[in-house]
Amino acid sequence: MKNARLHKHPSGPEADPAQHAPPQAGGSRTTGKADSGPGNRLLAALPRRERGLLAPDLEEVRLVRGQVLFEPGRVPSHVHFPHAGTMISLVLPLHEGGETETVTVGIEGAAGIGVDPTETTIESFLRGMVQMPGAAARVPAKRLAEAAGASPVLRRLLSRHAEAAMSMALQSVACNAAHRQPARLARWLLVALDRAAPEDGGRLPLTQEFLAMMLGVRRATVGDALLAFQARGLVRLHRGGVTVLDRERLGRTACECYDAVRRRYAALLPGTTRA
Ligand SMILES: [Zn+2]
Asked: In sequence order, what are the beta bridge partners of 239?
C-alpha cells in the first residue's frame, strides 16, 4: 500500500472537476477560448474549421494537484487539454495497493479519449490524475466524439494522438523491465519538462512521492538518485519540486526511451512536441 496513501483525491470519481476550480481563476487567460494564452498544442494543431467545431463547447478550467478526472470502469465525462505548466498522469491502480503511471499528458496532448475518438461508451481502463496543477481546456467527451464523427481531420489527429500515447505506454513496459533506475529517473524528468513546458524555465513541482510512484520504486531510492543528480549539477532540489539545470547532460544520463518516445510523438503529431 506504499503509494495508496500518497495521493489524496480532492474529487471523487464522480465529481465534476470544475467544482474544484476557482471560477475564472485569477482572471488571467480564462477567456474560455481554447486558443487563448499558451494554450494546448494538440488543439492548436487543428485547422480553423475543426477548432470552430469545438469552440462552443470548450471551456477553460483550473486543475488542482491530485484531482481525479476519470476513474477505471467509468466513461470519462470530459476530455482535458492541458495548458503550459499542467500535467496529467494516466495511472493504473492495483487492487493490492499502489498505482503506477503509464502515460504522461501535458501541453502536447489530451486526457480522456480512447483509441476510437467517436466512441462514447467505452469505460476507461486508467485513472486520470492531475500531477502538476494549472489551466486546461476541456470539452464534454460526447461533444468531442460528435465533432470527430463530423470531421475526418479531427478524427485522424485524435487517432494519431492515441497511437502516440500507446507507444509511450509500450515503451514504458520495456523501460521498466530493462533499464536502470537513475536512467529512468532522468528520462521521466525530461518527459515532465516536455509535457509541462513550464513557463519559468526548468522548474517542476514534482514531489518525490510522485516520482517514486511513476518509477515504481521507493521514495528513498528516488531521493538518493536526485541528490546524486544535484551533486553533478543536473538538477536543483527545493521544497515541493525539482529544477532541471542542465537538460543536455540529463539527456545523456537518460535511457534511450526518452528519445524513442519523443521521436514517435514528433512523427505522429508534428509541432506538438520537441522535434
Ligand atoms: Zn528506458
From this structure: none
